[in-house]
Amino acid sequence: MINPKNLAAVNFRSSYSVAAVTRWSQSSSRLFSFASPIRSSKNPTLSARFFCQSLFLRNNNISNTNTTVQPQNDQRPKDTENEKVKSTYSILLDKRPLKTPKGSPLTIKHSQRTLALLLAGEWESQETVLKHHSLPLTSLVSRAIDTFEDRNSSERQQAITRLLSYLDNDTLCYQQSYPESLVELQKRHWDPLLRWAQKFYEVEIKVTNSIMGVKQSGSTMEKLKKAVDEFEPLKLAAFERAVITSKSYLISLGLVERQINAKQATEAAHVEVESQTRQWGIVEDAHDVENEHVRCQLGSVACMLIDRNS
């Protein structure tokens, strides 16, 4: 059962936010979930597609939603439905099940009900023409199903090996002794993660102040690779996106293991940029856009794992 506490709003992109909120009724023992896409302040028009009107959970049945845009080519579907099939949820678009790029059915475990709702929310908030960047959760789930379902596949092993290559060049392992503002940020955002990783995985992580680089021991590399190799498909897909976005293996481990949240992960990934902008200022439409992009990507990672312990 989903925790009845309200879930925080999650920013998927700069112009829209999808707020997933749960309300619990003790008298009826029913769970109502809804989400609303909200336009940015530049365009105050409010879209009134609430999930309380479109996705109604009652006794594990979810009713369909109706919109007015006719699907055509890559246009958004007019009907979005979330269906429970054999202990899984399937997203239905105009009564047709959503599929991954490789043609596999896109299904979500019954224990991950909130994720299924968020996926349906992504599709319900689409405008006339689909935009890939506005479907971060759909792309992650598709990646997990198409690439990481088979634990023995060469593609999965190659992906893990590529991710491991980030470790020797991990941002957290290259620290500076000046300026003071950078040192303070390193201590605040990096050192706690380093201590956690060393204790949690029982490894020694080498840190350097030199530009010559540092190579982690074979034992450390093997243990951290094994930890990732044991990830379930959804978690591995989330971890992959976190690594590629943050450029840090260790920050990503902290995020998927819930030691830090998406906001903290973004701050840790931008320590050096933050130090520079404090001294020289922000370049508009560059630093700010990049920061929001990273928050969006890492936010989708956090959403992927929202039901992990359900």
Automatic annotation (TrEMBL):
Entry-linked InterPro entries: ATP12_ATP_synth-F1-assembly (IPR011419), ATP12_ATP_synth-F1-assembly_N (IPR042272), ATP12_ortho_dom_sf (IPR023335)
Segments of skewed composition (Basic and acidic residues): 75-85
Biased composition (Polar residues): 63-74
Region of interest called Disordered, as start-end residue ranges on this chain: 63-85
Gene Ontology terms: cellular component: mitochondrion
Keywords: Chaperone, Mitochondrion, Transit peptide
SUPFAM superfamilies linked to this entry: ATP12-like
Locations listed in the record: Mitochondrion
Annotated GO biological process: mitochondrial proton-transporting ATP synthase complex assembly
Family: Belongs to the ATP12 family.
Entry-linked PANTHER family: ATP SYNTHASE MITOCHONDRIAL F1 COMPLEX ASSEMBLY FACTOR 2, ATP SYNTHASE MITOCHONDRIAL F1 COMPLEX ASSEMBLY FACTOR 2/ATP12 PROTEIN, MITOCHONDRIAL PRECURSOR
Protein name per its UniProtKB record: 11924_t:CDS:1
